[in-house]
Amino acid sequence: MNISQLRSTITTLLSATPGLVGSYTLPDGTKIPAIYVQGRQSVPSEWKVEGLEVVIQEFPALIPGAAIGKYKQNKQWTVVAVNYDTTSDNLSKAAERLASRFPDARFSFSPESDIAYGQYRITIPDVNMAFLAK
Q1: Could you tell me which residues are beta bridge partners of residue 83?
Q2: SS3 of 56, please?
Q3: What are phi and psi for residue 109, nearest 5 degrees?
Q4: Contact at 8 Å (CB) between 74 and 62?
Q5: Measuring CA to CA, how many Å separate 54 from each of 11, 74, 128, 132, 134?
Q6: Would you give the distance in Å from CA 81 to the centre of its chain?
């Protein structure tokens, strides 16, 4: 899986429930869904976020492993969902939808507090098997 496929899958999955994903308001007033791929830059500070924000790390962590005559390349994609709307349960709904598509993912929940919004850090495994290079 590549980042484009992962983003598309997550966007399709979460967009199936209207109003689940929040929005970014850009400086010119345009609103776009609050799903962002974070690479060298994070979400621009001038973008205003409302509701549920989903940030996907562009590059997965690589965890190589050996097998007989093959190697196993484990990748782990990190997705962070943050709910800026403290009156909705969209964070739980989004986590349930992601768990239904990625049942082997690990979910780490951080509850809302007086200094932080509620969030899930989701680690999605992606395993590739290939023959060793000669």
Answers
A1: 52
A2: strand
A3: -95, 135
A4: yes
A5: 9, 23, 25, 36, 40
A6: 6
- Chain segment 33-48, per-residue pLDDT in tens: 999 999 989 999 999 9
User: Whole domain around residue 109: which residue ranges?
Assistant: 3-131
Instruction: Identify whether the C-beta of residue 15 lies closer than 8 Å to the C-beta of residue 30.
Output: no
Q: How many domains does the chain have?
A: 1
What angle (nearest 5°) sits at the alpha carbon of residue 102, between those of residues 96 and 103?
80
What is d(CA 3, CA 57) in angstroms, rounded to the nearest whole number? Answer: 8
The encoded tokens of residue 104 equal 């082997």
**Can you give the pLDDT at residue 115?**
85
Angstrom distance (rounded) from CA 80 to CA 90:
14
Does the reported pTM lie above 0.85?
Answer: yes
User: Does an H or E element contain 23, and which?
Assistant: strand 23-25
Number of H helices, E strands in the chain: 2, 9
CATH number of the domain where residue 7 is located:
3.30.2000
